[in-house]
Write a structure and sequence with these properties.
Elements lengths: L1 H12 L4 H7 L3 E7 L3 H17 L8 E7 L7 H10 L4 E5 L1 H10 L5 E3 L21 E3 L4 H15 L5 E7 L3 H17 L2 E7 L5 H10 L4 E4 L3 H5 L1 H10 L4 E3 L2 H5 L4 E5 L1 H16 L15 E6 H6 L6 H4 L4 E3 L1
Parallel strand pairs: 1-2, 1-3, 3-4, 4-5, 6-7, 6-8, 8-9, 9-10, 11-12
Antiparallel strand pairs: 10-11
Amino acid sequence: MFGRFFIWLLLTFFLPADSEAQQAGKVARVGYLSAVSAEVDKNRFAHFHRGMQELGYIEGNNIRIEQRYAAGKFEKLPELAAELIRLKVDVLVIFGDAAILAAKNATSTMPIVMTLHPDPVGDGIVASLARPGGNITGLSDLHSVLATKRLEILKEVVPSASRIAVFFHAANPTLLRQLKDIQELASVFRVTILSMPVTGPADFDRAFTIMRKEGAGALMVLGSPFIGVHRRQIVEFAGKSRLPAIYTQRENSDAGGLMSYGADFQDLWRRAATYVDKILKGAKPADLPVEQPTKFELVINLKTAKQIGLTIPPNVLVRADKVIR
């Protein structure tokens, strides 16, 4: 009798329950949806993946990441979001305004982490940064707020520029609000803003032709997944037009763009991993405030400056976080 009781004690208190054993061996499933291609997104995803590794998640061991890429074909995003939802992943990680909206429309219950969004409150993605509500949280990249700084840098580099062209994807409503903010700053910097909306690559030649005819002295390119997909073409057009241009992401300067100023995207992607970790451990997106960038970087490409016959002022060059020579 005592022997059977002793065995019962062992089974009850020293061996894990079935559910606990399954939980310990569970492989978390994360869906990763990007509006751009795997090639364009590879550096960002690598930083997200590294962030997960630093938190103890090893691919094939305790986590599996299902990746889907729209490669600039934004009409595919609803289908790709639905596909990941059907896989019943534990959390969705999303890059791109259109991709975030597609995921939001596809599910109101599955946790969603946005790697960045320029204006999640303005676009109705979250109720507020401090209290997102619903099933979405993540990071905002402050594109709108940084517009002032980009204009300031452009005027320091090209003080003679009285007309500045703003190049952007017309189908992105967030960028229309950014354009309005920039136009309101025009009088402060004593410049005229030339709005250059495009809907696709077929518009690029026309847009840059108009810039030259209108006497644009400098160019601002508003960041979006569309710009990422067509980065090299845009950089080439700016170079051929000999237009000093400032972009929002360092990848554009790495690709030959003159300058970029914005949030450190590598840092944002690694921070996105902390949201995934918290959600996998039981936190609710509604209770996780949307965070903003804490690191920013100015990148200057001196090779491009030389090609277009521009000298970068020493007071700007000394502030650069990276100089491409």
